[in-house]
Every structure is written in structure tokens, then in C-alpha cells.
Amino acid sequence: MARTDTNKSIRRRRKVKILATLGPASSTKETITALLRAGADAFRVNMSHGEHEIHSRTIALIREVEKELGKPVAILCDLQGPKLRVGKFRDGSAFIRHGAHFTLDRNPEPGDDTRVELPHPELFGILQKGQRLLIDDGKLKLKVIRAEPDSLLCSAEVGGPISDRKGVNVPDTLVPVPALTEKDRRDLAFAIKEQADWIGLSFVQRPEDVAEARRLMGGHCALMAKIEKPSAVDTLDEIIELSDGIMVARGDLGVELNPEEVPPLQKRIIEKVRLAGKPVVVATQMLESMIERPTPTRAEVSDVANAVYDGADAVMLSAETAAGQWPIEAVTIMDRIAAQVEGDSTYRERIHITETPPDATMADALAESCASIANALPIEAVICFTMSGISARRVARERPSAPMLVLTPSQKSARRIALLWGAHPVSTKDIGSFEEMIAKGKRMALRHGFGAAGSRLVILAGVPFGVPGSTNLLHVVTLSGNELEKHDKA
Fold first, then answer.
1. Are 90 and 110 within 8 A, CB to CB?
2. 378 has a pLDDT exceeding 70
3. Rounded Cα distance, 271 and 322, in Å
4. Helices and strands in the chain, H and E counts
5. What b/e sequence results for 327-342 when a residue is b if at least 16 CB atoms lie within 10 Å of its CB, and e otherwise?
6. pLDDT band for position 1 (50/70/90)?
7. How far is it between the farthest Cα atoms of the chain?
8. Could you report the per-residue pLDDT of 248-273, keeping only the tens digit for each?
9. Mean pLDDT for the chain?
10. Are strands 222-227 and 198-201 parallel, antiparallel or unpaired?
């Protein structure tokens, strides 16, 4: 990506970020450009669909547009994870009567209205009487009434039509399968080769799943654990600690939990991740009706608004932009919702319901001071010089009233930061002295639209410069407004 020292890149006026999924409806250069201009800050590549060759072309197009627009863009490659499915039926489908008995077994013969194969031997022996199996995203609900080594006799609590290879969720027990399948391992190696910024890890059940993925990643990407299994909630603190970010994947959570349990859980996850100073993304069905319609429902608008009020770092669009008929409109409307919420007079109070007391470190103390100064004085921006992005995350954790202009010599850090609340990342040359830091901070603020003559800035950095984790300096400066002219004449 070209250095942006001489180009004014896209400046967002809102702080929450938008993560848009690319797919058949949005994988052209023209559409990717339009999505970024409409409000997208990062793109999700869904490894569940498409071949590596297609994904490689999509990633190359993102990087091409990124260079042209001068805006660091985060790419998240989302791994599929293990998928539990029923087998096939004699006629391609069947009908399970409500209240009837239905058997899941290890017989590979095509199924009918009374039975079907469950081609997952690991489930036999762990499922017990009284436990549930949810089929086709919870449309059918079966309860085990007798568990045997080769069959599960179930009662249909909710019946209905069923067809070949429909998905199965098992909410009441820990499924003895790893989060990474062989396909996931191939997809992970591909994502690393393509220099993806984030990896979305699906089917996380335990901290060990995250630790295994981190080992395979070797530090090449940031890891975002997707919370979509009830078992992950039981060890949420450990999973957050091992991850670089968290996604609240409400699709499977909404299948495996009672619907009314999901909203308070979403708020609790956001709070915990914010306290840890890591980005948290809210995903799934946010503007679902816009797959086919140019406008969302009022309930969907409220859903997006609530995630913004809760202080999420990013909100995500899935099929709305990947396969929907109105991808640009979906991003545009999400951008408008977020901007409206952040302009609400109660917004600041609401996002600070979560208290974020600083850890006993210099970086945390200075990050809290940045937020305090920005809240007390008319500060145009917090300028954060960082190598790794850690200090930017600590400032974002405080949710300051002023936006952050994050300056980093690391292209990798700039891209990862694109998912961080309130951060405007810029990849730029490193600094070598205090005087150079002040001068450069002022110039970059003017160049990227953060202030004019008389504007005050808070600058956060570390000495010695270029050393990760050395944040120890906070300085308040005032723009004269002619810093760019002086630099050009020098």
C-alpha cells in the first residue's frame, strides 16, 4: 500500500466500524470501491463458500482499491469450522410429524419419515436422554428419549419438512470435535499466504480451540474468536484473553439458546471484551431483510442502533452485501444508523455505562488521561504514534469523545486497527525525535482533516521511538494551521 503522507484518505465522521462480507454480489473492483466510499471499513471473506482462486482475486482487488483510496482496509478471512449435518433421504426430503418418534442412526441407507443417517460417529455415546438436537437452524427440534451406541431415538418437539444434508446443532453438550477441520487448516494456510489481517475462528467451544489456532497462525494474523456456542460462554474470560478480538455470532447462538437469552448475552460479551481492550464485532442478521429489499425493517434499525449504543467496535453485514440485491444501500443505511446514534445527546452516557478502570501500567494511565483531556477540553483528535497498535487499543477502550488519528510505520498494524472503534489508521514513516513527532503529528492532522488553525490535539507516543510497548509520553499541542506550508517550503 502506498504511503499516505501526501494523500488525504477517506475520513469517517463516525467511530463505530462497518465490516462487510464480500461475495457474488460484491466482488468487483467497482463494487468494492463503492462499498468503501459508502462506509465499509473492513471486508470479510467467507471461506465456507468459493474456491481459493476466487478468494485470491477478491483479496487482490481489495488491496488495489486500498492503494487507490489511501485507506488501510482490514481483511478478515472467516473459517467455516466443523459442520454437523444429517444424511440424505430416499426422495431428497421427508416430513417429521410433530410429536412423532424419529431416529438418527449410523445406517448409510437413505432416510425416510422415520429415520435418517447422522454421519458423525463422535455424537453417539455423548448424547444422552433429554438432550436436544436442533435441525435446519432450529426449525426442527428433537429430544433424545433413548441413546444407544448406533442410534438415537428422539421425540419431535417441533416437526416439519426436512431435506438432504440439513445442519444439526447440539446445544446441550460439548461436541468432541476440534474447531479446525482439515479444510479449515488449508484455508488458514491460504489466508496467511494472502496476508489476511484477521482470522475468524468458528465453532469455538473451549480455550484450547483458540490456543491451537494461534499455534498454527504463528503470529501472522490477528485472531477473532467467534462466540456462537453456549459452551464458549462458560469459559468466555479465558477465550477473550487468548484472542485478539471477539465476534458475537448471533446466528448459531440464537439457534442453540432461547431467543430471549441472546440480547443480554450480547451486552455482556461486549462489556467483557471492551474491558479487555480488544475489538468486539456484532454480527448476523443485522439488516437481513435488505438481502431482497432496499430498506430495512424498523426492528433491524433498532438492532444495529443497540449494538452501537452498547459500544461495539464494529457491526457486520453478511449476506446483505455478499449475495443481496442491495449491497451498497445496506452499507449506506448502516452508516447512517451509526452516525445518527453517535449524534444522540445520550450516546456518550450510554457507552460509558461500562466502566473501564485502567490497569496499573503507564500505557493505561496515559490512555485514560487522553480520554479525560478529550472529554474536558475541545480536543479535535488524539494522535497516537504506535508500532504494534496496543496503545491505540488502550485509548479506544476508554471511548474518548475525540477521534483517534493512529500513525504507524507498520502496514500490518494499520490494517488491523481499521476494525478499532474511533481509529483512523495511517501507514506512515517512523519518527526519530520528539520535535519530529510534534511536527509530523500536526501535519498529519491537517492532511487528514483533523482540525484547523487553533485546534488542539493530544499526542500519545513512546520513547525511545519505534520500540513496541514503550508508551510513556503525552503532549497537548495547538495547530497554527500553516504547518503543511512550512513543511513544503522547507
1. yes
2. yes
3. 29
4. 17, 21
5. bbbbbbbbbebbbebb
6. very low
7. 84
8. 999 889 899 988 999 999 999 999 99
9. 94
10. parallel
Q: Which long-range contacts (CB under 8 A, 24 or more apart) does 268-275 make?
A: 269/227, 269/236, 270/307, 270/310, 270/311, 270/312, 270/354, 271/310, 271/354, 272/236, 272/237, 272/240, 273/240, 273/245, 273/246, 274/311, 274/354, 274/356, 274/397, 274/399, 275/354, 275/356, 275/397
- What count of Cα atoms within 13 Å lies in the side-chain half-sphere of residue 279? 31
Determine the pLDDT at residue 65: 97
- This prediction has a pTM of 0.93
Residue 400: asked if its preceding bond is cis (omega within 30°), the reply is: no
Per-residue pLDDT at 4 exceeds 70 = no
C-alpha 292/C-alpha 319 separation (Å) is 10
Instruction: Give CA–CA dist 104/87, Å, rounded.
Output: 9
Give the mean model confidence (pLDDT) for residues 199-212: 97
Distance CA(416)–CA(353), nearest Å, equals 27
* Antiparallel, parallel or unpaired: β 198-201 and 132-135: unpaired
Query: Which 3 state secondary structure label does DSSP give 448?
Result: coil
Q: Encode pLDDT of 272-282 as tens digits.
A: 999 999 999 99
Is 483 or 223 the better-scoring residue by pLDDT? Answer: 223
Q: pLDDT tens digits, residue range 151-179?
A: 999 999 999 999 999 999 999 999 999 99
The distance from CA 459 to its chain's CA centroid, rounded to whole angstroms, is: 28
Go through 76-85 and write b for each residue having 16 or more CB atoms within 10 A of its CB, e for each that does not. Answer: bbbbbbbebb
Select from 135, 170, 137 the least CA-distant residue to 255.
Answer: 137
CB atoms within 10 A of CB 456: 17
All 3 cell numbers of residue 156? 419431535
**For residue 485, what pLDDT is reported?**
86
Looking at 243-376, list the stretches that DSSP marks H as alpha helix, in order from N- to C-terminal side.
Answer: 250-256, 262-275, 298-309, 319-322, 327-342, 347-351, 362-376
The DSSP bridge partners found for residue 408 are 427
Backbone angles phi, psi at 60, to 5 degrees: -60, -40
- 385's enclosing H/E stretch is strand 379-385
The rounded distance, in Å, linking the Cα atoms of 451 and 60 is 34
As annotated, the active-site residues are 44, 85, 226, 284
Q: What percent of the chain has pLDDT over 70?
A: 98
Q: What is the pLDDT of residue 490?
A: 56
Q: Is the pLDDT of residue 8 over 60?
A: no
What is the torsional sign of CA 265, 266, 267, 273?
positive
pLDDT value for 2: 40
Which strand ranges, in their side-by-side order, compose the sheet holding 151-158?
A: 115-117, 101-105, 151-158, 140-148, 132-135, 168-169
Where are any strands of DSSP class E within 177-250? 198-201, 222-227, 245-249
Q: How many CB atoms lie within 10 A of CB 489?
A: 7
**pLDDT at residue 429 tops 70:** yes
> Are the CB atoms for 285 and 251 separated by under 8 Å?
yes
Residues 168, 83: Cα–Cα separation, whole Å: 8
